[in-house]
Amino acid sequence: MNIHTIANHLNGLCDNSLTGFQFDCYPIDGDVEVLQVNVVGREEIPVFVSVTDNQILCISYLWGETEVNQARRAEMFETMLELNIPMPLSSFAKIDDKYVVYGALALASSMEEIEQELAVLSDNCLEVIDELAEFLI
Questions:
Q1: Pairwise pLDDT comparison (20 vs 98), residue with the higher score
Q2: CB neighbour burial string for 70-108, b if at least 16 within 10 angstroms, e if fewer
Q3: For FRET with 19, which of 37, 63, 74, 90 sits at 20 to 30 Å CA-CA?
Q4: Cβ atoms of residues 99 and 16 within 8 Å
Q5: Which ranges of the sequence are coiled-coil (predicted)?
Q6: Residue ranges per domain, the chain?
Q7: What is the pTM (predicted TM-score) of this model?
Q8: What is each CA distance from 120 to 6, 26, 41, in whole angstroms?
Q9: CATH top-level class for 3-135?
C-alpha cells in the first residue's frame, strides 16, 4: 500500500464512490510521502494521508494556537475530551501549534475502508469546527 495506489483509486471513483463523495488527490513531495486528499466541495479542509511501515495515517488541520481564545483554552480542551469518544474513527491531536483531527488504519485496509475513513474524517472536521467555533477568536 502506498499513497499513489490510494490516489489512483480515489481519483478514479468519480460517481462510483461508496460514500457519495468525490475526491481530488495530489501527492506532496518531501522527506515523507504525503497525499493531499480534497473532498470535492470541502477543499478548505483537506485530509493528508501518509503510509508508514505500521499504519495509514489520515490528518486534517483545524486551526492554529493563535486562533484560540486563550481565556477559554482549558474549556476547549475539556470539550475536545468529551467529543473524542463519540467522534467515530477520529481523535484530536496537536502538531506543533496546529490542532488536528486524525484517524489511523491498518496497512491491510481495503480501498473501501480508506474511502470510508476519509469521508468520516471530513464529516467529523465539519462537526468539530461547528462545535468548537465558540472557543476561537
A1: 98
A2: eebeeebeebbeebeeebebbebeeeeeebbbbbbbeee
A3: 63
A4: no
A5: 104-131
A6: 3-135
A7: 0.92
A8: 16, 20, 15
A9: alpha beta
Mean per-residue pLDDT of the chain: 94
Query: With contact defined as beta carbons under 8 Å apart, do 38 and 24 qualify?
Result: yes
Which three cell numbers mark 20? 457519495
Which residue type does 74 have? A
C-alpha cell at 48: 493528508
Q: Environment class of residue 131 by beta-carbon count within 10 Å: exposed (0-12), middle (13-18) or buried (19+)?
A: middle
DSSP string, 72-94: GHHHHHHHHHHHHTTSTT-EEEE
* Angle, alpha carbons 49-123-48 (nearest 5°): 15
In this structure, are residues 100 and 93 in contact, taking their beta carbons and an 8 Å threshold?
yes
Closest to 19 measured CA to CA, from 119, 121, 125, 88: 119
> Do residues 49 and 57 touch, judged by C-beta distance below 8 A?
yes
